[in-house]
Amino acid sequence: MMDIRKDIRELMDLCIGCGRCTEACPSNAHGGCDPMDVMLGGDSWEGCIGCGSCTDVCGVTDPKKVMMYTTAVRTPVPIPGCFRETGYNLPAGEYPYGEPEYRGSGLSLMPGCIVNAGYRYLENAAVSALGHLGMPVSRYESGCCVYPVPYRVMTEGERDGLKKDMLKGYGRIVTLCGGCSHELTESGGDAEHIVWLLHRNLDRLPDGGLEGLKVAIQPGCRMRPIIRMYREICERLGAEVMDIEPGCCGKGTKVRDALMSERQKSMDGADAVIVGCPACFMWYDTWEGGIPVMHIAEAVAVAAGDRRSLGCHRIVPEIP
Ligand code: SF4
Ligand code: SF4
User: Fold this and answer.
1) Which end of the chain is more exposed for a tag (fewer CB within 10 A), N or C?
2) What is the pLDDT of residue 2?
3) What are the structural domain ranges in the chain?
4) Cα of 35 to ligand 1 centre, how many Å?
5) What is the C-alpha separation between 35 and 121, in angstroms, rounded?
């Protein structure tokens, strides 16, 4: 029997067993986890993607938090050593074509663990996109937002304390990942995903540049409610936006193949899929024979004429 921490037990005790979370769960729909079962003491935790759809529909407690905690204690993935040494959850990678031009300012760009490790060209592209808007930026160097599963064995107070330390010395932060901005905001940080900033500056974005490109939009779990912003940015850039129902990439869980196959089928005919989440980016870019992917910040850089990042993709987008 799993030893359940007090704050998690309290969240479980609030559950009334209505089943709405399980109905909303994309993993459950493909034979994955069952959040209501876990909330009622069961052990159907495997396959949780951490998308938060369960908590969005719940209204009385927080099944996502319970699922992430359960995954953390059931899956033997310790907090990585490099977190203690570098602040990042994953070892740092290289910039494939040189460091971005950080000119310094009150605005800091947070790359996040996945970009810092393996997709540094997305950092270049984001700096380039912000440069197009006339926004010089510095780099947020504090590392991981402590969202990933291994950190869920910590109490909320411990995670909050770590995040508050990471925020010291930083003002406005712009992120490439919705999870990072959410985590930092929860701990009092002035952080937002770059899509908000791009959308506020819609009339300063390149007016065209992606004409002839048909795109499908997958904003990622946390940003589905603001898909309209993605659409308006892509339309401003001149792309044709397909009408599709966004969904989950499946991350690296046991339901990944089922969910990713579903996504690829739903986007049939797209020249590129536009995402807001570096984890989604990674899973799309490594899907054999899949539709090429671009991060929304990268789409702006490309439309502005900076195509250097495209050659770094495993599946290279072809821009007309
Ligand atoms: S966690 Fe919430 S949505 Fe799920 S069964 Fe319990 S009360 Fe219902
Ligand atoms: S976080 Fe997502 S995958 Fe996990 S239980 Fe909730 S709805 Fe299902």
Assistant:
1) N
2) 65
3) 6-74, 81-199, 206-312
4) 8
5) 37
Task: Say which CATH class 81-199 falls into.
Answer: alpha beta
Domains 81-199 and 206-312 share a fold: yes
- Which residue's entry shows tokens 């605005």? 107
Q: With bands split at pLDDT 50, 70 and 90, how would you rate the model's confidence at 178?
A: very high
Please state, in angstroms and rounded to a whole number, the distance separating the CA atoms of residues 9 and 29. Answer: 26
With a 6 Å cutoff on the Cβ, whether 309 touches ligand 2 is: no
pLDDT at 252: 83
The mean pLDDT value for 292-309 works out to 98
The ligand whose atoms approach the alpha carbon of 26 most closely is 2
Q: What is the pLDDT of residue 222?
A: 78
**Cβ atoms within 10 Å, residue 56:** 17
Mean of the per-residue pLDDT values of the chain: 94
Residue 216 CB–ligand 1 contact under 6 Å = no
Phi, psi (deg, nearest 5) at residue 9: -60, -40
Q: Over the stretch 91-124, which tens digit does the pLDDT of each residue have?
A: 999 999 999 999 988 999 999 999 999 999 999 9
- Calculate how far, in angstroms, residue 154's C-alpha sits from the geometric centre of ligand 1: 23
Instruction: With cut-offs at 50, 70 and 90, classify the pLDDT of residue 5.
Output: confident
Ligand nearest to the CA of 36: 1
Ligand 2 pocket, residue 48 CB under 6 Å: yes
- Residue 224: per-residue pLDDT: 84
How many whole angstroms separate alpha carbon 311 and alpha carbon 137? 24
User: Which among 43, 54, 55, 249 is the best mutation to test ligand 2's pocket, defined by most ligand atoms within 8 Å of the CB?
Assistant: 54
Q: What is the pTM of this model?
A: 0.92
